[in-house]
Design goal:
With about 90 residues, this protein is of the alpha+beta class. Helix content is about 25%, strand content about 30%. The protein has helices spanning about 25-35, 55-65, and strands at about 15-20, 45-50, 65-75, 75-85. The longest helix has 12 residues, at about 55-65.
């Protein structure tokens, strides 16, 4: 899901996880696990090769009330930014 911003406009991430080579639901499960270690307001960057992250991440963020900042293709992978809300 390409947003109106570009990848260079994304904020610095407090933590980055790489879920490359895995399929749904692993990237989302690992996102949830990583966000538990972050403070509210901190940003997580998730690297994934599963194209499903383009729809899964925004939906998961909405369901969990975290903020989906954007998901962008980066070569063969996707990078998704999430801000922890609570």
């Amino acid at each position: 899901m390409q947003g109106t911003l570009d990848i260079a406009a994304m904020p610095s991430a407090a933590h980055t996880i790489d879920t490359s080579g895995t399929l749904c639901p692993y990237p989302i499960v690992e996102t949830a696990r990583a966000l538990r270690r972050l403070a509210p307001g901190e940003v997580l960057c998730v690297v994934a090769t599963d194209a499903g992250i383009q729809t899964d991440m925004p939906m998961w963020c909405k369901a969990t009330r975290n903020e989906h900042l954007g998901t962008f293709r980066d070569g063969a992978a996707f990078r998704s930014w999430v801000r922890k809300k609570r």
